[in-house]
Write a structure and sequence with these properties.
The protein is 40% helix and 21% strand. The protein is of the alpha/beta class. The structure holds adenosine-5'-diphosphate.
Length: 477
């Protein structure tokens, strides 16, 4: 079985969010199960500089926006074979991979088209995928190009990592995207008079995967369907939710390359040292008994962090500490900075994206706040569980599937791993924070028990990769 994964992100070379982590781990887990897996990516600087380039895999012609381009092949740092679409005018630019510059539709149509051509014709050495597996809207046109080619083609899978991002462009781009006018209708690439890359993928792919069972249900309802719930409901039989895994080689307090002091569920004393080091690094009061809450996140509306900002003063009044690592909405960045300035011993903010700091925040904090309004899977809460940093989450998507609330009942029956609340409400989050502080202070032994249980949860990629393999096998039969 030959599977080509197509993505715009790949840990550790190009990372905006969880997609990178998935791409850094899933292909390896599939390889371990015997799948002949390869990756196709745009030639972003991070990729060109981060992989071992071994040569040219062929020349791809007929690409939207550029005509012909070189396809390079090489190996990722994890030794997975990778194809790189080498179009410097598109990809060798400063800024992040999704920086809008007026030609994003062409950048990612070219990626999709290269995937389709590899799927139809294979590379120079005759490697040809039996399955093309596309991730998010950036490669959403690939299943459309393949299906519309009318040629014998590989099977196709589209993975929704976040339905909120769809890649929507004016219908006037139809010709330069090389889509036939006959595809511009309700059951094709058309979406409210525009072209929708993700919808194209969802329409033409043989199977649709999203990243948690609960999210697979949520996107079939108007609240979180982003106007695609009708299509997703119609395709419910071909839609499956497979929970993402955590790469414990990278995200483990016993092994992390970014920690001065390591620990595990049997030796929690190291976590106390990590907490003290973090408090010192951030200029917070070095008090071991103060509950320290953290946020490590894109500061996007989806993440519900306005509810954390609303509760920041309340946390201060509870005598707790708050450490924020994130970047995004200026209003949130400034809001948190304001609170940190008013309470420098209790609140610290680091604006930016810093992988090492993310590990130190996870190791040093007592609890992670992730009150997302909507969360397809969420990885940070999985990492927090492994670091014994109890997640405080809203009951949605993958958060609902991975964290068990420390209710009296779940504490009694020995299943609690964090704190879960339901309503999208700052008040209810506040109540939950109060509950967490109380357990931390009044019942430290129970807190430690929950911590140990959280650390022993197994969300490794092995199980998830097995589900992907089942899906592939079903598809080929
Ligand atoms: P999303 O994909 O929606 O951003 P996930 O929880 O699935 O959310 O994945 C987020 C990933 O990005 C995690 O690896 C998390 O540690 C990382 N991350 C988010 N913000 C930052 C930041 N400011 N600095 C470092 N890592 C971050």
């Amino acid at each position: 079985m030959k599977v080509l994964h197509v993505s715009a992100e790949l840990y550790p070379l190009v990372k905006v969010g969880g997609l990178a982590d998935v791409m850094g781990a899933l292909p390896q887990a599939l390889k371990a199960l015997g799948v002949d897996v390869r990756i196709l990516m745009p030639g972003f600087p991070g990729v060109m500089n981060g992989i071992r380039i071994e040569g040219e895999a062929g020349q791809i012609s007929g690409l939207p926006g550029v005509g012909a381009a070189r396809l390079l092949h090489g190996r990722t740092p994890a030794d997975i074979p990778i194809y790189v679409l080498d179009i410097p005018t598109f990809y060798n630019r400063p800024g992040g991979p999704y920086e809008e510059s007026g030609d994003s539709h062409l950048k990612f149509a070219a990626l999709s088209c290269a995937a389709a051509q590899l799927g139809l014709h294979g590379d120079r050495a005759h490697w040809k995928p039996t399955i093309v597996h596309c991730h998010d809207w950036q490669s959403g046109l690939a299943p459309a190009y393949l299906a519309l080619s009318g040629l014998p083609r590989p099977a196709t899978v589209v993975n929704i990592h976040n339905l909120a991002y769809q890649g929507i462009y004016p219908s006037t781009f139809l010709k330069e995207l090389q889509l036939p006018p006959s595809a511009f209708h309700l059951e094709g690439v058309e979406f409210m008079g525009n072209i929708n890359f993700l919808k194209a993928g969802l329409t033409y792919a043989d199977r649709i995967v999203t990243v948690s069972p609960t999210y697979a249900q949520e996107i079939q309802r108007p609240e979180w369907g982003w106007y695609l719930e009708g299509l997703l409901t119609r395709r419910a039989k071909e839609l499956v939710g497979i929970l993402n895994g955590a790469d414990y080689e990278v995200w483990s307090p016993a092994r992390s390359a970014h920690l001065e002091c390591h620990y595990d569920s049997e030796r929690l004393s190291g976590k106390k040292i990590c907490k003290n080091l973090l408090q010192r690094e951030l200029g917070l009061d070095e008090n071991p008994g103060t509950p320290l809450f953290t946020v490590i996140s894109r500061l996007a509306p989806q993440k519900g962090l306005d509810m954390v900002l609303e509760n920041a003063e309340y946390l201060v009044s509870l005598g707790a500490q708050l450490a924020i690592l994130g970047t995004g909405e200026p209003m949130l960045e400034k809001g948190f900075q304001r609170v940190a300035k008013a309470h420098p011993n209790q609140v610290a903010v680091r604006v930016g994206f810093d992988e090492g700091l993310a590990h130190r925040f996870l190791a040093g904090a007592d609890a992670l706040l992730m009150p997302s309004r909507q969360e397809p899977c969420g990885l940070t809460q999985l990492y927090a569980l492994r670091f014994g940093t109890l997640p405080v989450v809203r009951r949605t998507g993958g958060l609902a599937d991975t964290v068990v609330d420390a209710s009296p009942e779940n504490l009694a029956n020995g299943t609690a791993t964090g704190f879960v609340f339901g309503p999208d409400s700052a008040w209810v989050l506040g109540e939950t924070l109060g509950r967490a502080c109380e357990l931390y202070r009044q019942n430290p032994r129970t807190w430690t028990e929950v911590q140990r249980r959280a650390m022993k949860q197994d969300f490794s990629w092995k199980a998830s990769a097995g589900h992907y393999l089942d899906l592939y096998q079903g598809l080929l039969h």
